Amino acid sequence: MPKIYLVDVTNRDGVQTSRICLSKLQKTIINTYLDKLGVSQSEFGFPFTNHEINYLNANLELVELGAMKNIKLSGWLRAITQDVEAAFRNVPKLKHMNLSISTSEQMIKNKFQGKLDYKDVLRSMEKSVRLARSMGAETIGVNAEDASRTDMNFLVEFARAAKDVGADRVRYCDTLGYDSPFSIHDRIKEVAEKVKIDLEVHCHNDLGMATGNSIAGAKAALDAGVNVYINTCLNGIGERAGNADLVSVILAVKHAQGIAGKYRLEKVKLNTAWRMCKYASYALGIPIPINQPGIGANAFAHESGIHADGALKDRRNYELYDFRDLGRGEPEKIDTGRQITVGEYSGIKGFRNVYDRLSVQFKDEAEAGEVLELVRYANVHNQKPLVEEELRFIAQYPEIARKIFTMQPGGGE
Predict the structure, then answer these.
(1) What is the pLDDT of residues 325-360, one digit of tens each?
(2) Measured on CA atoms in the order 100, 281, 38, 204, is the torsion positive or negative?
(3) Coil, strand, or helix at residue 303?
(4) Torsion-angle region of residue 75: left (phi > 0), alpha (psi -120 to 50) or beta?
């Protein structure tokens, strides 16, 4: 039976959102959260981009150390041989990647402007896949950018060519959020039935339908007998109006009528979602909307007398799922007395006080001094106070943290 997998693209597509950014430490913490949740893959960055190199290599070291036990970390590349060569030169241990190229008439005519035609698009994709495989790639996805506006005959031809040269799956990109649940279902069904290759569904929210489109596209692929990989972002961030929200997609698969219980989803631990989404909100500097599914402040709030009475009698009267499933329910404690924090100018005594409260012990003063120096750098790196997850990470993996904080113009260490 085919299965649903999750590919979170917060650290690639999400950070392309205008007016927001994530530090390399914040991206790393998000990767560890995604691993704990059970997401199969994080598209963690651009291996051909110089300022990403140390962060990407450091995160792959964390995988080797067992700090991320299950997740695959994949890079995003343009489907050109120069990017493939640069990726393996910069990040030699990279094993998973998606190669992207535009496929619609709009893009070929008005983005490439005569530099590429349809045959060139196929040729560039095929060369890139062959090269990536020869250089050691274990899994390769091929992205059809603007798939929702691509001629269906060419889309099928593109997917078939990708399969023939050894790609593992094809990413159907609704780049402009143009699809509806009806159109994406029919289009993905046709590709899946004719090509029989696993598919990724990548939906944007320009018309407010990213989650619905993702589920409809996934259903089409599964019913056609192939696995599907739904692309998501934390808290629905992403370019313009955002991408499909990770938690909303999981909730839809688990609870939506006609979907719940009918299709297999990789094993996820949704009880980590509350802390993960709150961390992402802090890191991004974007408040969680009050009506955000599962995570928003009003997701389980009842004021109307009829609703409150019904929810108190049996939560299933007015709640589709239990708040405890998302890791909610514990009271939040806020210190209102003396607070010692750590920053770029912290001294050893205040630093030790903060880590003592976290029950983190150091073997000697030298180790404490080393971690203090890294914590100072981290505050400069993040440009905001560190939170518990970040402080614990730095103490546990100081050498990895040092690499993450290091960037040099021109690339490399």
Answers:
(1) 999 998 887 887 878 888 888 889 999 999 999 999
(2) negative
(3) coil
(4) beta
List beta partners, residue 7. Answer: 41, 231
pLDDT digits (tens, 9 = 90+) for 21-63: 999 999 999 999 999 999 999 999 999 999 999 999 999 999 9
Say whether domain 3-277 belongs to CATH 3.30.70.20: no
**What would the DSSP string read from start to end of 245-298?**
BHHHHHHHHHHSTTTTTTSEE----GGGHHHHHHHHHHHHT-PPPTT-TTTSTT
Alpha-carbon gap, residue 379 to 384, rounded angstroms: 6
Give the separation between CA 372 and CA 351, rounded to whole angstroms: 7
Q: CB-based contacts of 362: which residues, under 8 Å, 6+ apart? A: 355, 368, 371, 395
In this predicted structure, what is the pLDDT of residue 80? 98
Q: Could you give the angle at the alpha carbon of 109 between the alpha carbons of 106 and 113, nearest 5°?
A: 135
Query: Strands (DSSP E) along 213-291, which ranges?
Result: 228-232, 264-265
Helix (H) or strand (E) holding 190: helix 181-195
pLDDT tens for residues 216-245? 999 999 999 999 999 999 999 999 999 999
E-state strands within 192-326: 198-203, 228-232, 264-265
- Asked if 235 contacts 276 with a C-beta cutoff of 8 angstroms, the reply is no
Write phi, then psi, for 240 (nearest 5 degrees).
55, -110
Question: DSSP state, 166?
Answer: T
From first CA to last CA, the distance across the chain in angstroms is 45
Q: What is the CA radius of gyration of the chain?
A: 23
